[in-house]
Design goal:
Strand content of chain A: under 5%
Helix content of chain A: 55-70%
Shape of chain A: elongated
Number of domains of chain A: 2
CATH architecture of the largest domain in chain A: Orthogonal Bundle
Largest sheet of chain A: none
Distance between the termini of chain A: 49 Å
CATH class of the largest domain in chain A: Mainly Alpha
Radius of gyration of chain A: 21 Å
Number of helices of chain A: 10
Oligomer: homodimer
CATH topology of the largest domain in chain A: Tetracycline Repressor, domain 2
CATH superfamily of the largest domain in chain A: Tetracycline Repressor, domain 2
Amino acid sequence: MKPSSAVGGPKFRREAPELRRDELIAATLACLKKHGHDGVSVRRISAEAGVSMGLITHHFSGIDALLAEAYEALAMRLLTQNSEHAFAAGADPYERLHRYFTGSFTPEAIDPAVFRIWLVFWSLVPHSKTMRAVRERTYGRARATLERLLAGLPNAQGLRVEAAAIGLSALMDGLWVELSLNPRSFDAATAVALCDDWVQALASGSLRGLRVQSPVTARRHARIVAP
Amino acid sequence: MKPSSAVGGPKFRREAPELRRDELIAATLACLKKHGHDGVSVRRISAEAGVSMGLITHHFSGIDALLAEAYEALAMRLLTQNSEHAFAAGADPYERLHRYFTGSFTPEAIDPAVFRIWLVFWSLVPHSKTMRAVRERTYGRARATLERLLAGLPNAQGLRVEAAAIGLSALMDGLWVELSLNPRSFDAATAVALCDDWVQALASGSLRGLRVQSPVTARRHARIVAP
DNA sequence: GGTCTTATTATGCGAGCGCATAATAACGCC
DNA sequence: GGCGTTATTATGCGCTCGCATAATAAGACC
């Protein structure tokens, strides 16, 4: 019973555009979470939001624009809450990184349903310049956050922090993908431990290619282009 | 002009079921490569194979079965060719692993179009028990291959090889995902170097949680359940 | 309280989808 | 060379899709 229960009541609410846009974005994420790719549908999303189809084309230039905004909303939400969680910890760089890891492998973070949302967005990246731009931005932010965290390590000045962020980011993503596809393949604590160990190895200089000015570095590591 | 050029020639070829099945599997992969999720369509796949729709339901129990077989075919092909490439190298464990890495980050391996195939398959995993089984099997094989390669390291008896395979597999996958989404974010050589460095750190015992019997190991690393 | 803006709904159109069912013809077999 | 098996095609049905267009009404403003 969506319409107002009062018989003569208004048949719909007229909301501020920005509010309605947020509702539609939330409905989009809910829809992708429920139905995966089949959730990419004007009809489904509008039904999820409890409004009629036309509202989507009214508030957005099209479904693509709505998807891009949903992508950005989800990515930014996760990024900020994770980094806040990490930086809220004390000044100990290892502890901060550890917090970042634990926050990245919580049960909610490795929810297979949430992973399916990402799969949808990723699959749209090659087609849409907008989606690509969102991904570049969010990936860049994730790497920047890791760089900041890694820069706090005792011997950070002797480390190629940008390259290290690439590696650590990949390690985390790989663990996250695997856990999302099969939460039973290994424990979240294992994932956190693997990340902690990697940081430890980095800090101790055991990841040779990630040390600055290493003669072997210039040969083995190609130049990193703009993220 | 698909039908035979001779006017009175046969209108279609009657092929051995197994051959036709292979053709349909190949057409499925080609279709997913071209169209992503929109390629999951009886009409599109059959058109790609140059046959009529009905053949799919005739040779397979349904589109789901065809997709599962295509998934397995692609995964097994990549797995075998990569591991053959690695084991073909000499007995030096580092060299073998290095070969495995380089083979995993060739331009063909990080083709965004191929990545889209995987996205489709991954998105089907939560729904289909068959797809899940295929994924379990292929992921297990990938880990087993890495375990074999890591077991060749000098101090392998002092290492938790199964746990190490999880970490290395995740690192590789994470790098592969990122490169597939944006081949320009960093160089393939960087990815290989990061993997090599990780192996080096592992072999030198710098990844503390991956050493056997370490007192900290039991605390930090939870037990690994069946892959 | 009338009026105007515009957020919102309702409806129709054409196309593509999966699936089922019937018709057809290639090719092995004797 | 006719015959039977079955691989293969052709066709139709009901559904949902995205998109466009017209009709409606909520709520602000004076």
